[in-house]
Specification:
This protein is α/β, with parallel strands linked by helices and 271 residues long. The chain has 10 helices and 7 strands. Strand 5, helix 7 and strand 6 form a beta-alpha-beta unit.
Length: 271
Amino acid sequence: MSNNLLKGKRGIIFGALNNQSIAWKVAEAAKAQGASFTLTNAPIAMRMGEIQKLAESCEAEIIPADATSLEDLEQLFEKSQEVLGGKIDFVLHSIGMSPNVRKGKPYDGTNYDWFQKTLDVSALSFHKTLQTAKKMDALNEWASVLGLTYIAAQRVFPDYNDMAEAKSLLESIARSFGYHYGTEKKVRVNTISQSPTVTTAGSGVKGFDAFINYAEEMSPLGNASAEDCANYCISLFSDLTKYVTMQNLFHDGGFSSTGVSRKVMDRFMED
């Protein structure tokens, strides 16, 4: 259902890979709510994904960009403004990658060169995106920038590995940059801490299927779907949330506030 919450707004959506991606769902929801936007991903990720299908259905132009490259980001913001006909109103940063996770390195056997790559791709790219946008004055006042994160930034999930540090850094960047961008340009910066979600990135974490089931039984409302996360993103891109900034917002069915659930307790009480 469309309420035209984003009618007339222009955006950039990072990270749509296939129809499992949260970014893909955000793009579809943003289109339905009246927005126009460009899509971007790293060239290597685009070769692996199906972003062209999304671009066609959303009437969106694809602008390849490595989010760790300042030059690529400058070109992205410049071309997006040309394509869309003005400054940007919303940005979704849906990027995360860990070579240590992909290659099965245990947390206490971290390859530090790979760790630096994890931080650069999954967190510093958020800072680079914000800094580039600010230097270029590419965002309108009251624009909204969102990064996707996970509760492993605050609590230990052993197999989440060095991505936990990356998400912690991502959330800190949102607070710090949110202060500076808000003070000077009225731009909002937030992160959404989503339920474990079946995506290409998430599925790379060891024991992911079992963990999804655990989170489902721990959460009073159950796990939030990618579609519902997209709807939450839309609300934060809209003018209905103009004064929400520098927040890490949990979208997880209550998981983050639940110590233990009856379903989980019952499993330990079984004879």
